[in-house]
Write a structure and sequence with these properties.
The structure holds 3 protein chains of 3 kinds. Chain A is mostly helical. Chain A has helices spanning 3-21, 27-31, 48-55, 57-90, 93-108, 111-125, 131-155, 159-167, 172-201, 204-209, 217-227, 231-261. Chain B has 2 domains: 1-46; 55-288, MetI-like fold. Chain B is globular. Classes of the chains: A mainly alpha, B mainly alpha, C alpha+beta.
Chain lengths: 267, 289, 368
């Protein structure tokens, strides 16, 4: 294309990318406001509201709840999803397409719909407002990530590797433990991270399934915004942002290291 | 003889089949009880309401108020998809020309927002678009406006927020389509004497159109079901279907209406996906021409 | 029949994939310490047979014995086989040592034994000191040797190899072929080897089984197959060959004669089984048995097309009056014929072999 169009698109593109990334960070300076209203940039800065956040049991409980739900949802997703991914590699393509569709369907069905349906079912069962109930809802949205990621990892393994292990006398369980599992670890790690972040950040499902006992951080932030918010809400948002970023980079770094260790044959 | 073969194969393959079934059973059981079942129950609810099985559906379809909400949501989704696609196109083009670390960096900028909770992203816009927020203050400081703009609790804020959240979904398919364009086709067009604009209109655009269509559709579908962003940035002035459903459940406690509205929404989503399959193939044939 | 059970024995093994009969009943006995190669084009069933031997594929019918144990329905891990794959299938996340040690660990050997045997085996494949290396750091040839070591260290009843040299370049392939033969001579492990490369088969094997369309066309020593192929397919698959097709006019047990329509000539010589008067057949004449002469009227008329220099040999391509190519190999440089020269081709009758085109039935009908 012409030079002019290239320059124009670069300018436009850069603006768009900046538009995508920068606004998100508005919550960070907001959290450092000293006053009890938010101003960006802050007139006076302090860690006052961070202290409030750390000392408020409500916020802490929410943060902890988020972690507990996240870990449970990730565990459920990893166990069910890994088994599913392995199983999917063994069925015919047509069945695989159908089953994969079923696994991915929570991503197609509007989240609000899934949320109210779960809310309706869980109330009489006493699962509403529990860590477990929340984890179930989150797992539905997290499973696709595990299944897809582990599936990709599985397909990248030379199929003869498991055969070789078999031929050398290993039982199916041993083959899985010593050959399959180490080789799908990158996909597993990536899928787990996606699953955890999906759960940690999930809003709509959490709103409907949370209760007084179990309330995740996003729900608490949501409530705070709707009622009245002070910079502590920005602090909570910054914490959410920071944890997500940490996980994001953690996965990238770990992924790179794992990939270099189990490098495929040099041919 | 065939029986002997069949029996032996059955014996050996049934071991394998049982293993496969054992691997797939847990997730299917989980999805069945925790996803399918609740949705089926919701479907059942949609047929209740005392005044005949289809009362709730008809109520939604015939009521002026509810219809308005659906229409507004569709228009909102449509506009957001258009704006997002327009912004995404040049950006994707820029990305498709990048290599090495600049590409990695740009890609990171693109993917990073997707990892951040939609709540944080929307809240950030609340902070930015407030009457006393930095956007208003900068604009009046520069002298563009006299009075602070009201960007929240009206459609302006909703549009900004939703485009912001959904832009990456529009960008990725376009980028993929652009990366797959064979440069030699463009060179051939140039070589045949076409002006850059013509090459763009007749070669490049048609080739990337499927990507644009895919991105457009994706944004449209996601926007239809949006709850958090329109609620926080638009308030009750701009009801979306999702907000309506929420109202039915949390305030009015009319479950049949909530269920019916949900399935109306799902129907629209599924129809769009189905027709998109045909539409996308159509675009490819048009593009090929 | 034998008191001693053979290490590997296929008895009327069949296998179909849907409507495709990959293996029509195949029977094969491999003797203790023997190196048998299954040679054939792709689709001939050789890999299928190997996978059945390994236990990765169940057979449809027939039986498979390893030693005196019927392993037909036994899973691969209980068969005590050593398999070398074409793609090597080394464990990328384990070191060379751990790869080779894998089978021993599975068998629960004590650490000292494992260490000793792995080190010995690595030495045998000339990779001593490579233990701690990672697979990704090795060249193709080195990976191949690790794969070999991994299969051999467990001292399997049978060694199975599926075109293990397919991914190597020519030079390396020749080198490794000799390596494998050396190791076989040293260890005497019963081996079933699969390849489509006839040179490879000739170099390494005690016996070769030529396969086509799910059947073993012929099995025998390299010499057997080369000198006394049972049909035109085997003849053309092994070594260079000239085949003149025609109809049998005479057939008398050990000698036969055919008439080649397009060349208006009769060719006679020793024959294989399965011929019948009036039936189609081919006369096999190896290029090294052909001589050419310009100063004579006796022999098959031909015209020189090209002369290919092969080092100490010359390969000369002629074209016959029917348009068919005919090859000759000779040592002498003095008589390099000019292109387009008209010559006469000759051979000794005893160097001819009259062959049926196909095997008629698994035993070969003898109707003459």
């Amino acid at each position: 294309m012409t030079e002019k169009s290239r320059v124009l698109s670069t300018i436009a593109g850069s603006i768009v990318l900046a538009f995508l990334v920068l606004p998100i960070f508005a919550v960070v300076p907001a959290s450092f406001n000293h006053a009890s209203f938010i101003r960006i940039p802050p007139e006076a800065m302090s860690l006052r509201w961070y202290e409030v956040f750390l000392n408020d049991s409500e916020w802490w409980k929410a943060l902890l709840a988020s972690f507990r739900v996240g870990l449970l949802a990730t565990t459920i997703s990893v166990v069910l999803g890994t088994a599913a991914a392995i199983g999917l590699e063994r069925v015919t393509p047509r069945i695989r397409a159908i089953l994969l569709g079923v696994v991915l369907s929570p991503l197609i069905v509007p989240v609000i719909m899934t949320s109210i349906a779960l809310y309706y079912i869980m109330r009489p069962l006493g699962l509403h407002g529990t860590i477990f109930g929340l984890a179930i809802g989150h797992s539905l949205l997290a499973l696709p990530f595990v299944v897809v990621n582990v599936g990709i990892s599985l397909r990248s393994i030379d199929p003869n590797c498991t055969r070789a292990a078999e031929g050398l006398g290993a039982s199916p369980l041993r083959v899985f433990r010593t050959v399959t599992l180490p080789l799908i670890l990158p996909g597993l790690a990536g899928g787990s991270a996606f699953a955890f972040i999906t759960s940690f950040d999930e809003v709509v499902v959490s709103i409907f399934l949370a209760g007084v006992q179990a309330k995740t951080l996003p729900v608490k932030i949501w409530e705070a915004i709707r009622v009245e918010f002070t910079p502590v809400t920005a602090v909570a948002s910054t914490v959410l942002l920071a944890i997500t970023l940490l996980l994001f980079f953690g996965v990238k770094v770990a992924g790179r290291r794992l990939a270099s260790e189990s490098a495929p044959h040099g041919r | 003889m065939g029986e002997v073969i069949a029996i032996r194969q059955l014996r050996i393959s049934s071991r394998a089949t049982m293993a496969t079934a054992a691997l797939l059973a847990p997730i299917l059981l989980f999805m069945g009880t925790c996803f399918i079942l609740p949705l089926v129950e919701l479907l059942r609810l949609s047929f209740t309401g005392g005044r005949g099985p289809l009362w709730a559906y008809r109520e939604i379809a015939e009521s002026e108020v509810y219809r308005r909400v659906f229409v507004n949501t569709l228009l909102l989704a449509l506009n957001v998809a258009i704006i997002a696609s327009l912004l995404a196109y040049p950006t994707a083009y820029m990305l498709s020309r990048l290599r090495g670390w600049t590409l990695s960096f740009a890609f990171w900028c693109l993917l990073f927002p997707l990892w951040i909770s939609v709540l944080v992203r929307t809240f950030a816009w609340i902070l930015l678009l407030e009457r006393n927020g930095p956007v208003n203050r900068t604009l009046s400081a520069v002298g563009i406006i006299d009075q602070p703009l009201s960007m929240l609790f009206n459609s302006t804020g909703v549009y900004i927020g939703m485009v912001h959240v959904l832009l990456p979904y529009a960008l990725l398919p376009i980028y993929t389509a652009m990366r797959n364009v064979d440069d030699r086709l463009l060179q051939a067009s140039d070589g045949l004497g076409a002006a850059p604009l013509q090459t763009f209109l007749r070669v490049y655009l048609p080739l990337t159109l499927p990507g644009v269509a895919a991105g457009f559709l994706l944004v449209f579908l996601l926007a239809l079901g949006f709850f958090v962003t329109p609620m926080m940035l638009g308030g009750m002035q701009n009801l979306t279907v999702a907000m309506l459903i929420d109202l039915f459940v949390t305030e009015r406690l009319v479950w049949p209406l909530a269920a019916a509205a949900s399935f109306w929404l799902l129907l629209i989503v599924l129809l769009l996906i189905a027709s998109a399959g045909r539409f996308l193939n159509l675009t490819q044939t048009v593009a090929a021409r | 029949m034998d008191a001693e059970p053979r290490p590997l024995s296929f008895r009327k093994v069949t296998k179909s994939f849907g409507t495709v009969r990959a293996l029509k009943p195949v029977s094969l006995q491999v003797d203790s310490g023997e190196f048998v190669t299954l040679l054939g084009p792709s689709g001939s069933g050789k890999t299928t047979l190997l996978n059945i031997a390994a236990g990765f594929l169940p057979s449809d019918s027939g039986a498979l014995f390893i030693g005196d144990i019927n392993v037909t329905e036994l899973p691969a891990r209980k068969r005590n086989i050593g398999m070398v794959f074409q793609s090597y299938a080394l464990f990328p996340h384990l070191s060379v040592f751990e790869n080779v040690a894998y089978g021993l660990r599975v068998r629960g050997l004590p650490r000292a034994d494992i260490s000793r045997r792995v080190t010995e085996t690595l030495l045998m494949v000339q990779l001593d000191g490579y233990g701690p290396r990672r697979i990704g750091q090795l060249s193709g040839g080195q990976q191949q040797r690790v794969a070999l070591a991994r299969a051999m260290v467990i001292e399997p009843a049978v060694l199975l190899m599926d075109e293990p040299l397919g991914a190597l370049d020519r030079q390396l392939r020749k080198h490794v072929q000799l390596e494998i033969r050396r190791l076989h001579r040293k260890l005497g492990r019963t081996t079933l080897y699969v390849t489509h490369d006839q040179e490879e088969a000739l170099v390494m094997s005690d016996r070769i089984g030529v396969m086509r369309d799910g059947r073993i066309e012929q099995i025998g020593t390299p010499d057997d197959l080369y000198r006394r192929p049972v049909n035109a397919f085997v003849a053309s698959f092994l070594g260079e060959s000239n085949l003149l097709r025609g109809r049998v006019v005479q057939c008398g047990g050990t000698e036969a004669s055919i008439t080649v329509q397009e060349l208006s000539v009769d060719v006679a010589g020793p024959c294989a089984l399965g011929l019948s008067v009036g039936g189609e057949a081919a006369a096999l004449i190896r290029p090294e048995a052909v001589t050419f002469d310009v100063e004579t009227d006796v022999g098959l008329p031909a015209r020189v097309v090209e002369v290919v220099y092969l080092g100490e040999l010359l390969a000369v391509r002629f074209t016959l009056s029917s348009g068919q190519d005919f090859w000759c190999r000779c040592f002498s440089h003095a008589q390099v014929p000019a292109e387009n020269r008209e010559v006469r081709l000759r051979w000794r009758t005893e160097d001819v072999r009259i062959l049926p085109l196909d095997m008629a039935g698994s035993e070969g009908d003898v109707t003459c």
